[in-house]
Amino acid sequence: MKLLLVGFSEQNANLLSFLIQQHFKDVNCIHIDRGLTSDLKFVLPEIPNEHKEARGFIINLGGVGMLSYQHQHSQMIMEYVSGRPALLTTRTTINIWEEVLGMHGNFLYLQSPYTKDTILPVLQNLIEKAKHFVVIPKNEIQIDKPDTIIEKPIITPKVTEEDKSVLRQPLSHNDLLALPNSPVQNALQHMLKEHFSLVYTLPMIKEFSKLFYQNTPFILKTSRYDVLIDPKNNLAVSTNIARVLDYFTVAKSHPEFANSITIEILNVSESLSQVRKMEQAGAKKYILSTLLWQIYEAILPDEIQTMAHNLQLKLKFMPNFADIAGTPSYVQAVLASCLSTPKTIKNLHTLFSEIKPETIHRIFLLANLAKIADESVIGTMGLDDEKPSGRMTQKNAGVNKAVKVGFFQRLLNKLTM
After folding, report:
1. How many domains is the chain built from?
2. Predicted local confidence at residue 401, as pLDDT
3. How confident is the model at residue 413 (pLDDT cuts 50, 70, 90)?
4. Helix (H) or strand (E) holding 299
5. Residue 291, exposed/middle/buried by CB under 10 A (0-12, 13-18, 19+)?
6. Dihedral of the alpha carbons of 317, 323, 328, 330, in degrees to the nearest 10
7. Any domain includes 89
8. Considering 98, 121, 137, which residue would you say is the last residue of a domain?
9. What is the pLDDT of residue 410?
């Protein structure tokens, strides 16, 4: 059985071949020389005719010019392997490839550098897939003729109105986005458009800021994993929330991934039934506001600019940071300061002068988008309290005077009484 090694240097291909032949019998590894363009850039090489019957591939993506993923690469790889099992390896993040090609069961993935212990199980899986793959020569592929007789008619199920209501709809254009805004949604979206316009135009922000404030449950679908969202009950359910968040991280920089997200609108009974099914499949329940913090943490820029320093923030409650890995301690400190009384962004700049203003703006937005901010102050402006009022100055005059009187002066004053 032939495996083609593509995109490797001759030295690395020899090492990989030696490892495979040590542990797997009857596997013949063929190294295909790297392909180069006239300007010395790596490309997918031509497969020689004598090796076209190979049953599998191991492809080093960096050695075929795909170190940095671009949307056309997935189609090029699929056409290259023609349905045969393939192990893709790269020293950059492999998650992008898993999300794009995850629906195709013939691909395996391995992040480099890897050890012997990590690669051997993956090679075992690849070889098992390759053994069961049958290469059909082109001259043996038969095309059904138009006059082929079908003995039994194919019955197409009738699509009911209920079925239509659960069809997938694109994130950017779905029935929930057409619903009228609540006053809170209006305030939030006005604040985003007016004071954070660069953020508002980013992929997914505008849609999510509306969807998550609806009362209708829905399923948010990425390429492989789903998350059920029930805004009214502050509930989310998913079998693999980490992979959903990974997808959003990738989609932030690759619009084609954001455009692939769909939603499935549910009614209440469908939602309850779907939650039961997902739990039976091992899904976990999450507090929606905590999940929203993680979603926006994944898709917001690291630093955010705004000139609206009098915007206020008051928290209803703190997110459950026990479920949010890697949150800096200063984030909790900033949020805790806004629990009892509203703080303007300017207040927060003063209280936490060691934190970059752009980071404070990000925390401010995260709190509002994650639905943990008090709705009554969203988008409202506080007073400019940089200068103390005359009343406060008068009230503290005695304190200021007392501070200026030293210990010996106070002792002398007592002795003269």
Report:
1. 2
2. 43
3. low
4. helix 288-299
5. buried
6. 20
7. yes
8. 137
9. 53
Tell me the per-residue pLDDT of 110-140, one tens digit each, with 9 for 90 and over.
Answer: 998 888 899 999 999 999 999 888 655 544 4
Q: What is the DSSP string of 178-217?
A: GSPPPHHHHHHHHHHHHH-HHHHTSTTHHHHHHHTTSSS-
98 with 212, same domain: the answer is: no
Tokens, residue 319: 């997110």
The verdict on pTM exceeding 0.85 is no
Centre a 10 Å sphere on the Cβ of residue 141 and count the other Cβ atoms it contains.
7
The Cα-based distances of 129 to 75, 200, 390 in angstroms read 21, 45, 80
How many angstroms separate the CA atoms of 119 and 182, rounded?
A: 53
Burial class (CB in 10 A: 0-12, 13-18, 19+), 289: buried
Q: CA 389 to CA 364: how far, in whole Å?
A: 27
- Other CB atoms within 10 A of residue 414 CB: 7
Q: What backbone torsions phi and psi does residue 116 show, to the nearest 5 degrees?
A: -60, -40
- Kindly report the number of other CB atoms within 10 A of residue 239's CB atom: 15
The DSSP annotation for 264-291 comes to EE--HHHHHHHHHHHHHTT-EEEEHHHH
Domain end position, chosen among 299, 333, 367: 299
Nearest CA to 112 among 89, 145, 135, 84?
Answer: 89
CB 17 within 8 A of CB 30: no
Whether residues 48 and 165 share a domain: the answer is no
Spatial CA neighbour of 62 closest among 90, 41, 88 = 90
Separation in Å, CA 200 to CA 13, 176, 203, 258? 48, 18, 8, 15
Measured distance CA(287)–CA(278) in Å, rounded: 16
Q: Residue 111 belongs to what domain range? A: 2-137
Whether residues 6 and 118 fall in one domain: yes
